[in-house]
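During the reporting period the student researcher (J.K.) took over the structure-prediction task from the postdoctoral fellow and processed the backlog of single-chain submissions. One of the processed entries is reproduced below for the supervisory committee.
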Amino acid sequence: QVQLVESGGGLVRAGGSLNLSCAASGRISRNYAMAWFRQAPRNERERLAAVFYTSTYYADSVKGRFTISRDNAKNTVYLQMSSLKPEDTAVYYCAADLSFDRLWYDNPQYWGQGTQVTVSS
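J.K. obtained the following structure tokens:
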């Protein structure tokens, strides 16, 4: 059984930082591509960052502010967020898939339950 559990969300002021974690269990291994997405109310789901082996990918909206990393020994992926803006307020989701293309361009196979990030102005 695959499980992705996000943590680290919360309330932060604009300009602040927050670090999210996603702990994976089950068949998720280093061979899986993993990514962070977010969805704000009334908005479509937005891809943010992905990591596949040693390569990382970022959406333009977060490039330079967010950093994705993974610790294969802990089977955990992280999202370091800095210079946060009120428009970053959303539920943040972790996702995983054996296929990077499906993860980044389609619909990932596995999802976490999400963690709320609220940025106040």
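The committee noted the following: The chain has one helix and eleven strands.
J.K. will present the remaining backlog at the next meeting.
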